[in-house]
Design goal:
Blueprint: E1 4-10, E2 14-15, E3 25-27, E4 44-46, E5 50-52, E6 62-66, E7 71-73, E8 83-91, E9 100-106, E10 116-123, E11 126-133, E12 136-141, E13 148-154, E14 159-163, E15 166-171, E16 187-188, E17 199-208, H1 214-222, E18 233-234, E19 239-242, E20 247-251, E21 256-259, E22 267-270, E23 274-281, E24 287-297, E25 303-305, E26 309-311, E27 317-318, E28 320-322, E29 327-329, E30 333-334, E31 337-338, H2 340-343, E32 348-353, E33 355-358, E34 361-364
Parallel strand pairs: 1-32, 19-24
Antiparallel strand pairs: 1-26, 2-34, 3-17, 4-7, 5-6, 6-17, 7-16, 8-13, 8-17, 9-10, 9-16, 10-11, 11-12, 13-14, 14-15, 18-20, 20-22, 21-23, 23-24, 25-28, 27-31, 29-32, 30-31, 33-34
């Protein structure tokens, strides 16, 4: 007598595991030129700038430039129609009488919206800073060996200039003046011809692709401390999740949290790809910012091809799953074959699972 059973194929898909404007590029300059905005716009240290003490008297949290060749090269010119640049510097000395040294510079022939410059000038008996954007230029006397915040915001109809958190000047004719030549990227501590080097320290440069509110520049200036332990987001390293799944991002300890998706909890659950940024505030009101990039990976397209009705006395049959190198499950299954007599009579369920792996992520189908 012949006995048949019906083989049912089963495929299961599973997965194994904004308030203030956000900076387009943010450089803490903590001994390196890494961008912490999440946009991976890392810069380069040229001629060995060294770590130095920042304005909060924290060691290794700023960069010292020697005035004779060391500077920071940023990866692009940030030539945006709407723009804000904020940065801190402390000059040890000027370049001498009637000299100009460069704190920050973007200037070349291809700029559409004009040059961007923070300059240190020695005029007669006192040093002064000059902030330029397009046709706008503003100067003010400053003190050497003291930290100063410089900033400007620009739209296509207005430029505002700030020094030490104070709005100093407004122009309604931004213009687009620039030089006929120069390097194609932004520099900190060197001019557009890679000369006029700054002798001093630089810290916390931020570039925005919008004109940020006046209050944000003032708040950045008045923030009188940083977190003792830098803000961070766990898990560490790359975060990739499978389509239809979620990941939990957790900020380092603080008293309040502000995420760029408007969440205010320490942990958030995310299902969409993107850069997630959190500002952590501690009990003393000190703040720190961290970011994490999340990517979404597809589930593999899995199928199982085999006869749906098999003779009980038939020899073992080969199971065929796609993509290959997956795992088969079910009664009578051994490796990639099915033994009908071992499986027994009746309806039987056989499944095939395949894990798609790529470095840091694993998705099952």
């Amino acid at each position: 007598m012949k006995f048949n059973f019906l083989l049912i194929l089963f495929l299961l898909f599973t997965c194994v595991h904004t308030n203030a404007q956000i900076a387009y590029a943010q450089y803490p300059l903590d001994g390196n030129a890494n961008d912490i905005s999440g946009n991976n716009l890392n810069g380069s240290l040229i001629s060995s700038p060294i770590s130095s003490t920042n304005r909060f008297n924290q060691a290794n949290k700023a960069l010292s430039l020697n005035g004779s060749g060391s500077y920071v090269a940023l990866p692009q010119a940030f030539d945006f129609p709407n723009l804000s640049v904020v940065g801190w510097f402390k000059a040890n000395a000027t370049g001498g009488l009637n000299s100009t040294t460069v704190i920050y510079s973007v200037d070349n022939a291809s700029l559409q919206y004009g040059h961007q410059k923070f300059l240190l000038e020695d005029v007669s008996t006192f040093p002064q800073v000059r902030i330029q954007s397009g046709d706008v230029s503003y100067v003010k006397q400053i003190t050497l060996n003291q930290w100063h915040q410089l900033a400007f915001t620009r739209t296509q109809t207005q430029v505002k200039v700030f020094i030490d958190g104070v709005l100093e000047y407004t122009s309604n004719t931004p213009g687009s003046y620039h030089s006929a030549s120069g390097v194609s990227y932004a520099t900190i501590g060197a001019g557009y011809s890679l000369s006029n080097f700054l002798n001093g320290s630089v810290d916390d440069f931020m570039i925005f692709d919008v004109a940020i509110p006046d209050s944000q520049i003032t708040n950045l200036y008045n923030s009188n401390c940083n977190l003792t332990t830098p803000a961070s987001i766990s898990p560490n390293g790359n975060v990739a999740i499978c389509a239809g799944s979620s990941a939990t991002l957790t900020a380092s300890n603080g008293t309040t949290y502000s995420w760029n998706n408007s969440a205010t909890t320490q942990s958030i659950s995310v299902t969409q790809a993107g850069v997630y940024i959190v500002t952590v505030t501690d009990v003393n009101g000190c703040t720190g910012t961290a970011s994490k990039s999340v990517s979404i990976n597809p589930l593999p397209n899995v199928s199982l091809s085999t006869p749906s009705i098999v003779n009980y006395y038939a020899p073992p049959i080969l199971l065929s799953g796609t993509p290959s190198n997956g795992v088969y499950f079910g009664p009578g299954v051994s490796g990639n074959s099915l033994n009908p007599s071992v499986a027994g009579l009746g309806l039987k369920l056989v499944s095939y699972s395949y894990t798609n792996s790529n470095n840091y992520w694993y998705c099952n189908g």
